[in-house]
């Protein structure tokens, strides 16, 4: 589901057009730009924001307010294990919700971090950087987020579009269920998949998936057909 049929050109360069799109989506979702830490706590108590807990697949680095919109938490929980499987290291999240009076000096006055729909990732190196940029560009092209590569400090700013992302995940789940039903217990690996994610979606375990497919490790590739254990 694209946002008004518009993308920013999939370049990770950001700019005025990208900020316009991020702020328009925030308005379309009727999101409040949170002013203070006390308001963050109130939004948490009312269920608009949820806590993003620590995980074996990602690190929360020096985050003062570990809260975000529920869809942002879902995004991290899906992306992080895929990143760890592809790169062999944990994803580093450096920012989530930030109230207006806690924005860093170099932050844009039009930042959507105060709405809870944004997050930042530390920029990795080598193959991990290439993998993360490729996935962010694919998702940006699907109209579910805007991603910008920032330089001071080096990181990726991601503005997630909650309704569009929730619909995107629902389509993936439905398609996977259809392929499972049609294939009689077989699954074709898609770009970005991990054994952990496939096992979770099909109510099995990574150990059983490895055993059913004679896999020594966790490396899989797009187009590979896996047997799903009963």
Structure description:
This protein has two domains: 16-165, Muramoyl-pentapeptide Carboxypeptidase, domain 2 (2-Layer Sandwich); 184-227, Roll (Membrane-bound Lytic Murein Transglycosylase D, Chain A), CATH 3.10.350.10. The chain is globular, with a radius of gyration of 18 Å. The longest helix has 22 residues, at 162-183. Helices cover 40% and strands 16% of the residues. It has a five-stranded mixed β-sheet, sandwiched between helices. A two-stranded antiparallel sheet has the order 1-3. A hairpin with a 2-residue loop joins strand 6 (145-151) and strand 7. Helix 3 crosses helix 5. It is of the alpha+beta class.
Overview features:
single chain; 230 residues; alpha+beta; Muramoyl-pentapeptide Carboxypeptidase, domain 2; Membrane-bound Lytic Murein Transglycosylase D, Chain A; five-stranded mixed beta sheet; two-stranded antiparallel sheet; 9 strands; 16% strand; disordered N terminus
Compact overview of the structure:
The protein is an alpha+beta fold and 230 residues long. The chain has helices at residues 16-28, 37-45, 70-87, 126-141, 162-183, 195-201, 206-213; strands spanning 50-51, 58-60, 67-68, 91-95, 118-122, 145-151, 154-160, 186-188, 225-227.
Helix and strand layout, with pairings?
Blueprint: H1 16-28, H2 37-45, E1 50-51, E2 58-60, E3 67-68, H3 70-87, E4 91-95, E5 118-122, H4 126-141, E6 145-151, E7 154-160, H5 162-183, E8 186-188, H6 195-201, H7 206-213, E9 225-227
Parallel strand pairs: 2-4
Antiparallel strand pairs: 1-3, 4-5, 5-7, 6-7, 8-9
Helix pairs in contact: 3-5
């Amino acid at each position: 589901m694209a946002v008004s049929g518009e993308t920013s050109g999939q370049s990770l360069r950001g700019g005025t057009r990208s900020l316009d799109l991020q702020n328009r989506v925030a308005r379309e979702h009727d999101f409040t730009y949170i002013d203070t830490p006390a308001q963050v706590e109130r939004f948490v108590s009312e269920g608009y924001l949820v806590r993003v807990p620590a995980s074996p697949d990602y690190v929360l680095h020096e985050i003062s307010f570990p809260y975000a919109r529920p869809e942002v938490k879902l995004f991290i929980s899906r992306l992080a294990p895929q990143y760890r499987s592809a790169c062999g290291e944990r994803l580093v999240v450096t920012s989530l919700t930030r109230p207006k009076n806690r924005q860093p000096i170099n932050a844009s006055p039009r930042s959507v971090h105060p709405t809870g729909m944004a997050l930042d990732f530390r920029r990795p190196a080598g193959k991990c950087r290439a993998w993360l940029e490729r996935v962010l560009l694919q998702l940006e092209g699907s109209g579910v987020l805007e991603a910008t590569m920032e330089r001071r400090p080096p990181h990726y700013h991601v503005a997630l579009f909650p309704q569009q992302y929730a619909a995107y995940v629902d389509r993936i789940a439905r398609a996977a269920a259809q392929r499972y039903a049609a294939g009689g217990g077989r699954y074709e690996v898609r770009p970005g998949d991990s054994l952990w994610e496939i096992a979770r979606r099909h109510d099995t375990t990574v150990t059983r998936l490895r055993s059913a497919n004679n896999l020594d490790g966790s490396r899989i590739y797009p187009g590979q057909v896996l047997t799903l254990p009963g």
